[in-house]
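**Backbone description:**
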Amino acid sequence: MKHKAINFKTLVTVVLWGASVASLFAVDAKTVQDSIANNEMKEPIKEVVENKKTKFKFYGFVRNYFIYDSRQNYQSNEGLYNQIPKDQNLNELGEDLNEISSSKFLAMTSRLGVDVSGIKAFNADLSAKIETDFCGFSSSTTMLRIRQAYVKMKWEKNALLMGQTWHPMSSDLPDVLGLASGSPFHPFSRTPQIRYDFSLSKLRFTLAALWQFQYKSVGPDGADAKYLNHSIMPEFYVGFDFSNKKGFQIGTGLDIVRLRPRTTALEYFVSGQDTTGKDIYSSFTKKVDETFLSTSPVLFLNYKKEKFLMRFRTTYARSTTHLNMMSGYGVTGIDEETGVREYSPLRSLSSWINFSYGNDLKFNLFGGYIKNFGMEKELVKIVNPDGKSENSLYTRSNVSNIDCIYRISPAISYTMKRMTFGVEYEWTAVSYGDGYNEFVEVDGVRTVSNHRVCGLIRYAW
């Protein structure tokens, strides 16, 4: 009996899966600083309730935001999660229909959470976290959502985390008041994952396998987790960082994503001719096997001394819509016999720097810049045999004519016991073009900016 040859993509998938599983379970001792602790705001004092050996630490806050915007923006969560201003939308009179200001006052980002600890097993300290707020996801903003929900096993030099928490690319969030936490300049995502950390003196190694839930890649059918799920292979992250006693931390990482944009396609055939002798096309649905791989490296530097903190991060982003960045990918080739498509990621360099000083009275300054470099290969325009055109470029919020983005955002806050008051000004500007060339490169011809004022009132426990 004849056996089918092993497909090369299948072999690569099996090898990568095997490597990740072997590394995750080749541990017998664990400890690592919880990288998530650096992502969240400094936690307030927590009330502790003990039940035998199990400890429950309840925490949370009531957070109220007031926001004012000078124009319409790409945003979510009732406008609290703000990214960039929209391009001009001129009518026949030359009026910009997006130049409309707005203001809101909302408390939907109030949060509840509980940390569970106190149990030992397999010579490890076991812990768990579950955390929620009222922001919902997708189009809903009136429901509880899972922010974090994970279990963790911690040994002396190693740690294994399983569940939903911050994406490793989202570590070291900038110290800003806005809910978007520096997005789209900073990768932003909480996602289901299995993560292994190993610490050796001042060096830390991180390996993670991740899946998508709330923050998704884009594709022919919009934003959807199915493009990653259908590829079988999870997203991978590998990173290293080094810290010393003088307050410096430097690190690098690589995010690896394989997507399967389509599982089916239309096969066209001539079914007849019209009265003029022109061919009439019909179609049927067939299965296709197409995937593409993208990698995004990151470099970061932190420095802390007494009340002063500096953070810097730069990301060479390639198809990073799942990290809430202004990115995407496009079709760069089509096999005429099989109909299988080739893809290339949109590339951009995203950098930011953040300074903060103080404890109770704190001053913050954030600056960010993104430059679009387009694709390495030419974008293919798709026109089907029946004459209908098809979109071949998939981007976040369908924005494809951005040359560059920049932001400056100063803030001041004051904390008195458990009460915090803060004010932040955020100026974000986007250089838009009238279109893009065959490599999706854009020449900016106009700059559109938004002035946002954010007021924060928070009571934490």
